[in-house]
Design brief:
Number of helices: 11
Radius of gyration: 23 Å
Strand content: 25-35%
Number of strands: 19
Structural class: alpha+beta
Length: about 425
């Protein structure tokens, strides 16, 4: 059982796992206080964590297995903030500490490659008074993390999620430069397509299939064996790298740690993997050639497309990526999925499929003087990104510069 006190830090020698605790008191009886503790060992609170994983309102990206895969492959310095009312856990916020030259930032684990960050909140959060919850999520957590970080950053959080206000919506935030995009699945492919011009979508699929038939046809592949999934993931990395190079953009999947993380997701989350690989594979003359790859993650009735790529050397005019989306959505309709999430980032193909656009926010909570300076910098950068993305010419120029720097760094690393 975990002890607590009113923001009294426990000794550093306390086994190095349970670091500190405190509470935020409501006016009147102390029975309703939110008690906050900080932990450095995931295993210590795994049972509670997995219970919260089961809530449909909590993002897969903060699940125990997802965070374990990220922490293992990136060597993250982990701090988990636990909020509770009596014995009932109200929330878990798994942070990793990023140490820069000027300040330390606490971010939700793996934010760099997550499409949605919610933290983990239990059903009792709905009964917590708004003022008390806000105090716990700001001053309460701040007091506990001040010696570990200068600023807390919640990236890509929703104001409204699954039809209800998100608990973090009570905190002041700024608009993220990117929204995320979703397509509701309505039980059958016919009803689902009726939302987005079914006639045009079916015609496009028939054209794709006819063009692929001319070179021998295709198979829609779902990798059921881990060896096949790992092979498809490597194909994705190659296809995506070629695409980034063609566009003059930096490769977001270049780092060895990032690649190891996605491979770890395939191996984690038994009996179902956290990352399912889907593909379009050719028959005939080019038998075995992979034309398109997509990585899906599923939690209950919510599926997120984590990434996708196509082979642009063969049959690019057959739109294999669009065909793959059609086949995946068709299958998932039959499996009872309610939401197909195309993830963060505004792309024409996402708008052509999606009927729901979810604005995301960034929340920045300074904890120290350095943190206040950093918070101002975060807000200024976010505002600049929105302006840059609104200017296509400027955005393309900046991306080309990033790609050149990455290429130069790669050349410098070569023996």
């Amino acid at each position: 059982m975990m002890a607590s006190s009113d923001f009294t830090l426990s000794p550093e020698a306390s086994a190095g796992r349970y670091l500190s605790a405190g509470s935020v008191a409501r006016e009147g009886s102390g029975a309703g206080r939110i008690t906050i503790s900080v932990h450095a060992d995931m295993d210590e609170i795994e049972a509670e964590w997995r219970v919260l994983d089961g809530s449909s309102g909590n993002s897969l990206h903060q699940s125990f297995d997802w965070c374990a895969a990220w922490t293992k492959t990136h060597g993250s310095e982990l701090l988990i903030v636990r909020g509770a009312a009596g014995r009932e856990p109200l929330f878990l916020l798994p942070f990793e500490i990023e140490r820069g030259r000027l300040f330390r930032a606490a971010r939700l684990v793996g934010s760099e490659h997550s499409n949605l960050n919610t933290g983990l909140f239990g059903p009792g959060i709905d009964n917590a008074p708004a003022a008390e919850l806000t105090a716990a999520l700001t001053g309460g957590i701040g007091r506990q993390l001040r010696r570990f970080a200068d600023v807390i950053v919640f990236d890509r959080t929703p104001q409204i999620w699954r039809g209800a206000p998100h608990p973090l919506a009570a905190l002041a935030g700024i608009e993220n430069p990117n929204a995320s995009f979703q397509l509701p699945l309505l039980g059958t492919i016919e009803h689902t397509l009726a939302q987005i011009n079914a006639k045009r979508r079916r015609k496009k699929m028939r054209i794709s299939e006819r063009r692929l038939a001319e070179i021998g046809g295709y198979d829609y592949v779902i990798a059921r064996e881990t060896q096949e999934a790992h092979a498809l993931l490597e194909t994705f990395f190659r296809q995506k790298a070629a695409r980034f190079e063609t566009l003059g953009l930096p490769d977001a999947f270049r780092d060895a740690e990032t690649r190891a993380f996605f491979h770890a997701l395939i191996d984690a989350g038994a009996p179902e993997p956290l990352l399912e690989l889907n593909a379009i594979r050719l028959r005939g003359e080019y038998a075995g050639r992979i034309l398109a790859v997509a990585g899906l993650s599923r939690k209950g009735d919510h599926v997120i497309c984590q990434f996708g790529s196509i082979d642009e050397e063969i049959a690019a005019d057959a739109s294999p990526g669009e065909l793959l989306f059609y086949r995946m959505i068709e299958r998932l309709c039959a499996e009872g999925v309610a939401v197909f999430d195309f993830g963060i980032g505004d792309q024409p193909y996402k708008r052509s499929w999606c009927t729901v656009e979810t604005p995301l926010r960034d929340i920045v909570l300074p904890l120290t003087f350095r943190g206040r300076l950093a918070a101002g910098g975060f807000r200024a950068i976010a505002g600049a990104k929105r302006l840059v993305k609104a200017n296509e010419t400027l955005y393309a120029f900046i991306q080309r510069q990033r790609q050149r720097r990455q290429t130069s760094a790669a050349s410098a690393d070569e023996p």
